[in-house]
Amino acid sequence: KLIGRGDDRGLIEESPEWWDYWDIEINRCINGYEGLPGRYYFMLKFCKIKDVEKGWMAPWYLDFQHELIERIEFNDARGVNTGVEKGRRKGYSYVAIEAILLYDLIFNTGIECTWGVGDDETLIASRTNILDCFNQVHPFFYLNTLQDTKDLMKFGWRQPGDGGRMEDHGTLNNLYMELMSMNTGVFKGKAVKRSIFEEIGKFKNLKQSFNDTKDCWRKGSVQKGTALLGGTGGAVDKGSRDFMYMVNNPDEFNLDWFFIPAVKGYYPFVTGDKDSQQPDAIPGYSLFRISMPIIIIVFAFSAFSFYLSDRIIPALNRQKNYILY
Predict the structure, then answer these.
(1) Is 14's pLDDT higher than 70?
(2) 292/61 Cα distance (integer angstroms)
(3) Which of 102, 114, 171, 231 is most open to solvent, judged by the fewest CB atoms within 10 Å of its CB?
(4) Which residues are CB-contacts of 54 (< 8 A; sequence separation ≥ 6)?
(5) Confidence of residue 86 (pLDDT cuts 50, 70, 90)
(6) How far is CA 19 from CA 27, 123, 142, in A?
(7) pLDDT at residue 150 tops 50
């Protein structure tokens, strides 16, 4: 709704007008538009998300996604890794796949990205989600694959060169997807622009996986690439010890943590009612607050205890819809 889903329909492909249109759009995707980071502009206008009722649809603008992307870009510029703690159904996975991973692979050439998980279930789900999102991107940005296996996607195409010999063309970017529970150093030796660690609460060896990968982002003593770690606060198992340790010791891992609390509603709870800009007046959001109260159990070494004093409790006090143990 903010920028529309405008496209090149009605323009003759490869015509001057068609190229003028895409020159403008590519510039906005790279440099941003009307206060939106280029990554978020790209996601909102040229990507889709999947809704349980409507199927694939254009994303809604969400303020915390905007803020998260700006934080990631800020951290990238200073060589700092980003960690994300979130409640359920916040749209984080779409940000990680579309605004971060897919964007990196489209708007760069000759780079390597990694996607690491801690269990087989997450690996299968991640690969399915990544392929689905990649296939829903606007055809102008569609990435052809030179190689597509269970653990490597190489992007580009092959065409005859001088003398008829087949040559590789395109971005020639690589995406590696691996289970790290049995081999924490599976990405060693690669020069990586972006490492994404998915569902970090399920990593039984998150610290070791992170430490064994961090040299991939460095050129000498300078960190050139960055990591993005994300996980749902309620989806933690035996791996939560590493998760908690990294939250409470961010400097040890050059990490900046971003928290998306459960007080943030996500579509379809936030309906985007055109007649109101106030969340309390949106029926879907009100229903969300009534039907999904926030329950927080505070342990001595809770992963969220770091945030209680200055982030969570003030938000809860404003909402007045929680149970605190």
Answers:
(1) yes
(2) 22
(3) 171
(4) none
(5) confident
(6) 12, 39, 17
(7) yes
